[in-house]
Description:
It contains 5 helices and 12 strands. The protein is an alpha+beta fold. A 5-stranded mixed β-sheet has the order 3-2-1-7-10. Strands 6-12-11-8-9 form a 5-stranded mixed β-sheet. The chain is elongated.
Amino acid sequence: MRLLERSIVRKNHIKKWLAGGTAALAALVLTGCTEAELAAYMPGHKGISDVGDAIGNFWANSWVALMGVGLLTWGLVIWASVAYRRRKNETGMPQQMRYHMPIEIMFTVIPVVLVAGFFAFTAREQAKIEENWADDEREVHIEVYGKQWAWDFNYLEVEGSPHDHAAVYYQGVQAEEVRDADGKTTGEINMDKLPTLYLPVDAKVTIDLKSRDVAHSFWVPQFHYKEDTIPGKTNQMSFTPTEEGTYIGKCAELCGEYHSMMLFQVKVVSAGEYKEYLDSLAAQGNTGAVGDEFNRNLHNPGTKVPEIQHEEH
Length: 313
C-alpha cells in the first residue's frame, strides 16, 4: 500500500515538474520572439490601422492553430515509426490493419473543423472591413479608380465631417524609373512622382474602388488587406488609419504589360496636413471629380442579365 502511495506521489511530482518546465519553456520562447515573429512575419506592425491589427491577429492565431496540428501529426508519425519499427529476428509482413475507426474519425473531423473555423473567421473579418460607416459616422469618402497603369483619387464631400472639403481630385501616372546620365535605368523608382493617396490619421475612411478598364486590385501590404477593382462594379472598404506614416501600395491583380509599375503611396497625416493637401489640389484647379466618364469602356454590362428589346411593327 505504501509503495502504491509513493508511486502516486512520485507521479504527481513528475506531472508538476513537467507542467512547470513546459510553462517556463513557453514563456522563454514567447519573450524571445521579435515583433516580426509575434506578427507571424506579416508586413508592417501593430497600430497602423484597425483593419491591419484585426487581420494580423487572425493570421498569427491561424499559424498557432496550424502549428498545433503540425506538432500532433509529426508526433504521431514519429511515434508510429518507433513503436511499429521492425525488430531484430522479425521476418515477413507485419500484421495488417484494415481500419481504425477512432483515428479515421479524428482525421476527418479535425480538417473539417479547421476549414469551417478558418472560413467563419475570414468571413467575419471581411464583413467588418466591407461594412460601410453610417452616414453620420463616416468622416472621409474617397473614390479610387484603377487604370492601366496608375490610379486616380477623388476626395468627395462628407457633410458634417471635421474633414469636410469641397470635392477635389488627383490623377496619377504609372511609376517612373530613375535614369542615370546616360539614360540607362538604375532599377529604382522615382518615389516623388508616384500617385499618392492622403488620409487623415484616426479618421473613419470609406473607399469606393472602381476600374477604368480591366480588373485591378488595391493593395497596401502594411494594412493587411486588398480589394479588387472590377469594371462596371463598385467595391468598398472601410477602416481607420491609426498611425501617421508613408506606406507603399501596389496593384495585386495581373493587368497587363506594366502591371509591376502600377504603384502608389498612402500618406497618413495629421488633420491639418490633410486639409493643406486638399487646398493645394483646389488651388491647382483640380476641383470636382473625375468620374466614370473617363473610363475606357463605357458599355460594361453590369451584374444584371441584359434585356432583349424587340422592335414593334
